[in-house]
Design brief:
This protein is of the alpha/beta class and 140 residues long. It is built from six helices and five strands, in the order E-H-E-H-H-E-H-E-H-E-H.
């Protein structure tokens, strides 16, 4: 059985999230998704629009997701080891970054590969928030 893992905030769930989860599920038998807790999001000096308790329910409801779990920290190696995942899915915006090249080597020692998916252009929770702010300011 091929176990896949990915994680994210999944705030303002959008088509980019769907693309990631659909593509990931097509490459594994069981897809486990870590949803970042509100406390972990705050380490980036950010605050999600949708609270964790609702974001995880949205992710659980996605037909491509077999299991949704809390992501309490950024230690991906521990999570991969604990879940016995064979493959980890991430957006290609991380491809060839210093941190992910290091992860690739470390994950290889756990018999887990990284699969980079194309980032869905033109959509992100950050962009949606910016557009909402603009609309609110314009009064439209």
């Amino acid at each position: 059985m091929v176990i896949g893992y990915t994680s994210g905030v999944f705030d303002l769930f959008h088509v980019g999230h769907v693309n990631l989860l659909r593509n990931a599920k097509s490459m594994c038998d069981k897809l486990i998704v870590g949803v970042t807790t509100d406390e972990l999001v705050s380490y980036k000096n950010k605050r999600p629009v949708i609270p964790y308790s609702e974001r995880i329910e949205v992710v659980k409801a996605c037909r491509y997701v077999d299991v949704a779990i809390a992501q309490y920290d950024m230690n991906k190696l521990d999570m991969i080891s604990k879940l016995k995942a064979n493959i980890m899915f991430v957006g290609d915006d991380w491809y060839r970054s210093d941190s992910w090249e290091k992860y690739e080597l470390e994950l290889k020692s756990l018999d887990c590969e990284i699969c980079y998916f194309p980032y869905t252009q033109g959509v992100s929770s950050t962009l949606i928030n910016r557009e909402l702010d603009k609309i609110r300011k314009e009064g439209v």
